[in-house]
Amino acid sequence: MAKVGGLADVVGALPKYQNEAGLQAAVVLPYYNRKFVQDNEFDVVFEASNKLGTRRYEFQILKERTNILGFELYLIYIPGLLDRTEVYSYPDEREQFIAFQLAFLDWITWSQQKPDIIHCHDHHVGLIPFLLQHSALYTRLSKTATVFTIHNGQYHGAFGYDKFIYLPEVDMAYAGLLDWGGGINPLACAVKCADRYTTVSPSYLQELSYNSNGLEHLFATERSRGLGIINGIDTEVWNPFTDPMIAAPIDALSPQKGKQANKQALCKHFKLSTDKPLISFIGRLVLEKGADLLPEAFTRSLKEHTGAVNILVLGAGDKETEAALTQLNELFPEHYKTFIGYNEELAHLIYAGSDFLLMPSRVEPCGLNQLYALRYGTVPIVRRTGGLIDTVIDFGDEDGYGICFNQSNVDDIVYSIDRAITLYKNTAHLDLLRKRMMALNFSWTQSAKQYNQLYESLISLI
Ligand code: ADP
User: Fold this and answer.
1) Separation CA 396–CA 419 (nearest Å)
2) Which atom of ligand 1 is nearest to the CA of 314?
3) Which residue, judged by its Cα, is nearest atom 19 of ligand 1?
């Protein structure tokens, strides 16, 4: 329905697994005027109006008719604010998110619903736990437990007090909970006010205490109220044996044939030869992902191993990085290709057809790419950070299957690519690692169980 990164993977999959486990999970999202909305039918189940400062806005709650995604999906439609195509990048983003939160709370309050848990994801909805507790408008829901999940602690959604007028009346004795560093900080506010907060991996929970864009002190103080639950993957969508987006099924017990067929299709598409190790990168081209390091690292590796390795990039983001990566197409036409853009289908084929997937991330709260790579028999090359620590073991260690390095810098990337090239030459070892990684289980079943236990522990306190 709308996907920018891992947050969408989680919100699209977790409720499905929760429902299978006997819960009744529904998802509420802003309305995006995209293919999913055009292709599916919705009923208006609620409509009202609210105020954002002095501006009155109308909103509708739309419910998707058939539960096509495996859960009830509600969209909040607000003409002039939440009726657009893009997920981000509008100058009135703060107004969009605040209006969304207020409309949600109004709807739940006025329609007399009484959820056991409201589970909020990231700063966009970080004010909800506070408003439930400290705005008289929502006292009916003040006993509803809240969970707040941090998918990325670098983004706080902070704004100045000039926008305080957008909030409904709140108990000023508690207004300090909104604050961090002299502004309203929805992420900090949610960490303070939600009954529990979670991060998308245990290592990332630790990391936030020393790397969270200015909230380190808060996370160190609130550490005991946090819980790290690693993301799962949707094993129906990401099934290498049935995936319609890839060229041939990959059998987890004997992956060699399927891997080769997908590599052939992928290499044909990009006019690359199939007899060399293929190392790929998929993701947002931003500092967090270490994307700025790629042009120099790839140039060095491609020069040092002339003709012995092929490299492929799928991503979009910083214009400078996009341009530097695109330039490599001309410098190494036979061994390097960049595809700038977002392409879900191509991503599936790259996971299936590559030999290695590189993730030199500076910050990686969980990371899903390495989980997809593992499931598709592609060796992840990862920097040891956040969720990558929790999910990838170096093949030099006991029961290992990946390539790990310590620093987000060009030297470590080049060295790891060297290791990949050497590993690739040992076909039997590579085949063993593929079988080992494809036998791993990162499905949502286990993680969903942990969320369910958390919910139960909170409900029992009410
Ligand atoms: P983040 O949420 O920080 O971007 P994650 O690893 O949690 O990173 O999730 C990234 C998700 O987005 C994965 O499903 C990945 O396949 C997908 N993705 C990222 N960039 C692209 C792209 N350019 N084309 C297709 N899929 C992409």
Assistant:
1) 11
2) 23
3) 283
DSSP type of residue 256: H
Q: Is 249 in the pocket of ligand 1 (CB under 6 A)?
A: no
The number of the ligand 1 atom at minimal distance from the alpha carbon of 7 is 2
Residue whose CA lies nearest to ligand 1 atom number 27: 283
Q: Where are the alpha helices (DSSP H) in 305-396?
A: 319-331, 344-353, 369-375, 386-391
Site of tokens 């003709």: 307
Distance from C-alpha of 71 to C-alpha of 394, rounded to nearest angstrom: 37
Half-sphere exposure of 160 (CA within 13 A, CB side): 1
Both structure tokens of 233: 């993957």
For ligand 1, atom 4: residue with the closest CA: 5
The whole-angstrom separation of Cα 264 and Cα 281 is 18
How far is the centre of ligand 1, averaged over its atoms, from the C-alpha of 369 (Å)? 7
Tokens of 217: 């002190």
Please return the burial class of 137, using the count of CB atoms within 10 Å of its CB with bins 0-12, 13-18 and 19+.
Answer: middle
Number of residues in the chain = 462
* Band of pLDDT at residue 243, cut at 50, 70 and 90: very high
pLDDT digits (tens, 9 = 90+) for 107-150: 999 998 899 999 999 999 999 999 999 999 999 998 899 999 99
Report pLDDT for 223.
Answer: 94
Is any atom of ligand 1 closer than 6 Å to the C-beta of 368? Answer: yes
12-54 per-position pLDDT tens digit: 999 999 999 999 999 999 999 999 999 999 999 999 999 999 9
Q: What 3-state DSSP class applies to 372? A: helix
As a 3-state breakdown, the chain gives helix, strand, coil percent values, each rounded to 5, of 45, 20, 35
Contact 272, 348 (CB under 8 A): no
Q: Mind listing the pLDDT tens digit for each residue in 67-93? A: 999 999 999 999 999 999 999 989 999
Cβ–Cβ under 8 Å, residues 388 and 382: yes
pLDDT at 461: 76
pTM of the model: 0.90
Q: In a 10 Å sphere around its CB, with 0-12 CB exposed, 13-18 middle and 19+ buried, how is residue 29 labelled?
A: middle
| CA atoms of 441 and 444, how far apart (whole Å) | 9
Say which residues have a Cβ less than 8 Å from residue 150's Cβ, sequence separation at least 6: 122, 187, 191, 197, 198, 199, 200, 204, 208, 365
**Cβ(367) – ligand 1 distance below 6 Å:** yes
Let me know if 290 is exposed, middle or buried by CB neighbors in 10 A (0-12, 13-18, 19+). Answer: buried
CA dihedral for 114, 136, 78, 15, sign (positive or negative)? negative
Query: Which residue, by CA, sits nearest to atom 15 of ligand 1?
Result: 369
Q: Taking a C-beta distance cutoff of 8 angstroms, is the pair 282, 357 a contact?
A: yes
